[in-house]
Amino acid sequence: VYRTGETKKIIHHTVLTKDGSIRHIERSIVLMRSATGEPIGFSGIGRDVTQRLEVERIIQKNERHLRLITDNIRDIIWTMDFNLRFTYLSPSVLHITGFTPEQVMKMPLTSLLPPDTHRMVEQMLAEKLGEELSKEARGEAIDNQETVTFELQIMRKTGEYFWVENRISFNRDENGKPFEILGITRDISERKKAEEALRESEKRYRMIVENMSDSIATLDLNLQYTYQSPSIQRITGYSLEELKNLTARERLTPESRAMVEKMLAKALNYDSQNRPRRFGTQTIEVEAYHKNGGTVWLEITANFTRDENDRVTGILMTGKDISERRKTAQEKDKLEKQLVQAQKMETIGRLAGGIAHDFNNMLSVILGYADLAKLRLSDDHPVLNDIAEIKKAAIRSRDITNQLLAFSRKQIISPKVIDLNELITNSQKALISLIGEDVHLTYHLDENLRRIRIDPSQIEQILINLAVNARDAMPGGGMLTITTTNIRVDDFYCTKHEGFTPGYYVCLSVSDNGMDKEILQNIFEPFFTNKETGKGTGLGLATVYGIIKQNDGVINVYSEPAYGTTFNIYLPSTTMEKNVQEEPDKQQVLTGKGNIMLVEDDPMVLKITEGMLEYLGYDVIIANTPMEAIAICENPAISIDLVISDVVMPVMSGKELRNKLVGIRPDIKVLFMSGYPANIIAHHGVLEEGVQFIEKPFTLESLAGKVAEATATGGPSQDR
Asked: Which ranges of 616-698 does DSSP label H, i.e. alpha helix?
């Protein structure tokens, strides 16, 4: 100072105060001169700057910390003037974009942004600044902490665009007016990739859920749906919109609803006891309503959904349409039952056939001797009543055997084209006497009824059995109604009703007002009866069922309390012409003449049949075996007008014998007889065309009539 004469400041001059502390002093030294300009001394001003230096130290420290943060933070901190030129960029811009801060500050914003993005940024900043100025002009309070957040793409040095998130606000002067833009930019490209991957995953998930055949749903604990997949419309017919206001309770049948509520209550109770093991996934089958008015079966697999505290919050479930599976299972079960029934019927049928063959042979002997004994006694002989009772018992036994064959569908029949109305009308007298005075019989017969093809005797069996059944169901009397009508069955009807094939049918309905509905399940079972012991065989309705099935028909039964029972029998109609029935000649002479060769392996049947034929006036040639019959036939000296042959015989059947005999004598006439001919001269019980047959046991009158009929027709031709 002395040498130059210039004022000099001395900084950071420290002094020791009286209390021992150190203070920082800043001094200014000035050279003092005399009037003549000669230096005469120094003057100085001292200022305590200890507090200021401490503030500066803190500021410097904070600046170092701030720079350390801005230099090392991954986000870009930047400022920009209102011409959209950067005025500051943190060093992290190099790491994120590949550009240095200096490079970016020299670049226009348009070079970093896609064209449409640049216009969006300009518009947004202009709107934000305009909003600030408008508030200021209106004197409204301005939130200095308010920021705007938006996402956009910027360019890396490589030319690749990537996503960033920007938060911007304004830097303000001491008066609160904005003078530049402050922003923080964060690289969110990885987040965007994750979001895109999530969107793709959700898209795939939604595509899977919305296109899968099974339904997926979530419910709250009140069974209100919170989500349902679109596949529910394919399963139930209801749209998602229609199902919004329906609970699971409303969509289930009462039985399924009760089952679901019971299971839910059990599961919630189990879960509330804090057991170590959770109530596991449950699978049940429920029946839900379909929009078309029917129902659909669903296999539901359900489990609880839980919050972060493991508390139950709802139900997650999947539903699979198992209607076809259940239908298949039901059909399988039905087929298994049908198989068991068929096996049972076959077993009973074999038993019936065996019984019929031997039993009817014995009955033939009994009836034959009864007839012969009756004819050999005077009309007032006291034994006649005994013989009549013997004959009645034998006929009753024959009828039971025929019923066994009928329900097992092994009865020999001779179908004819008939008018059902005519047969019903002709049976009226017999039915009235059968049902008694307490049951009123009425008819409702279709005048234009189609014709059917069936053995007339089977219609009589059906009417008699149903009438007896109705009479026994109404011990106090009632109404029995017989109705006939035409119906047409189409393909759709066949899909809903078992046993039908498309076509035209004649429906015979027999209604009463007396059967208990609980009995219906077993009414067609053989030997089932609800009558007292000794008053029923249990074969009546089983016989009806067998007859209907043998003729490709269908039988259904309906019963309602207080209304009674109706049997509906459906028989296929035919366009064939009705068979003309010749009225029998009541004055017909039973005797005849001619040579009859009788072939029978049962000695007792052989003997009585021989006696009956001789009584009728015929000469009888006996053949105990088919081989004897062939030998007799080969003798041209022996005249044979008719061969009567048993059907079931050892070594050779009656049919085989006939073919052998026709080979020897082409015009020979054959009458078969049998208690059970199996399928030898009949297919499924239907007698072959042109075959003459008499069923054992037979009476003298029926034998005489069949012999006369057989001798009047031409001889059979040999089977090819």
From this structure: 626-633, 654-664
Contact call for residues 556 and 691 (beta carbons, < 8 A): no
Neighbouring C-beta atoms of residue 131, cutoff 10 Å? 12
CA distance 307 to 305: 7
Scan for tokens 């399988």, then name that residue: 332
219 phi, psi to nearest 5 deg: -135, 155
The CATH architecture that domain 420-574 belongs to is 2-Layer Sandwich (3.30)
Q: What are phi and psi of 32, to 5 degrees?
A: -95, 140
Non-local CB neighbours of 381 within 8 Å, separated by 6+ positions: none
3-state secondary structure of 181: strand
Q: Where are the domains positioned within the chain?
A: 8-58, 73-193, 214-321, 420-574, 595-712
pTM exceeding 0.90: no
Secondary structure letter of residue 560 according to DSSP: E
Q: Which two tokens stand for residue 533?
A: 């012991």
Beta bridge partners of 41: 32
Question: What is the model's pLDDT at position 538?
Answer: 45
Mean pLDDT of each 10-residue bin along the chain, 720 residues long: 75 83 85 86 85 80 66 80 88 90 89 84 81 75 78 91 90 83 90 88 75 80 83 84 80 88 84 68 88 87 84 86 86 78 67 70 86 85 88 80 61 79 88 84 91 87 85 82 91 79 91 60 44 45 79 83 81 78 48 90 90 92 93 93 89 88 92 70 57 85 89 58
Peptide bond into 697 cis (omega under 30): yes
Q: What angle do CA 525, 531, 532 make, to 5 degrees?
A: 130
Helices (H), 571-699: 603-615, 626-633, 654-664
Class at the top of the CATH hierarchy for domain 73-193? alpha beta
Closest CA relative to residue 344, chosen from 520, 555, 525, 519: 525
Q: Is 562 helix (H, G, I), strand (E, B) or coil?
A: coil
Taking Cα atoms as reference points, which of 262, 239, 256 lies closest to residue 295?
Answer: 256
Distance CA 114, CA 152 (A): 9
Q: Distance (Å, rounded) from C-alpha 38 to C-alpha 187?
A: 72
Cα 508 to Cα 556: distance, rounded to the nearest angstrom: 11
Please tell me the predicted confidence (pLDDT) of residue 596: 94
- The Cα-based distances of 9 to 4, 23, 47, 64, 580 in angstroms read 14, 17, 11, 28, 154
Place of tokens 């008694």: 436
Domain at 8-58: CATH architecture: Ribbon (2.10)
Contact 94, 86 (CB under 8 A): no
Please check whether residue 681 is in contact with residue 363, taking contact to mean a CB–CB distance below 8 angstroms. Answer: no
| CA distances (Å), origin 340, targets 335, 411, 539, 552, 621 | 8, 21, 19, 20, 48
DSSP per position, 420-446: HHHHHHHTHHHHHHHH-TTEEEEEE--
Contact 101, 93 (CB under 8 A): yes
Could you tell me the two tokens for 478? 């009632």
What are the residue ranges of helices labelled H in 503-580? 540-550
Same topology between domain 73-193 and domain 214-321:
yes
Distance of CA 183 to the CA centre of its chain: 65
What's the pLDDT at 627?
Answer: 93
Q: What secondary structure does DSSP assign to 54-109, as a single string?
A: HHHHHHHHHHHHHHHHHHH-SSEEEEE-TTS-EEEE-THHHHHHS--HHHHHHS-G
Q: Which top CATH class is 595-712? A: alpha beta
Query: Which one, of 491, 485, 425, lies nearest residue 456 by Cα?
Result: 425
Instruction: Output the DSSP codes for 20-68.
Output: S-EEEEEEEEEEEE-TTS-EEEEEEEEEE-HHHHHHHHHHHHHHHHHHH
As a whole number of angstroms, the distance between CA 152 and CA 188 comes to 10
Domain 214-321 of CATH type 3.30.450.20: yes
CA 457 vs. chain centroid, Å, equals 44
Predicted pLDDT of residue 717: 46
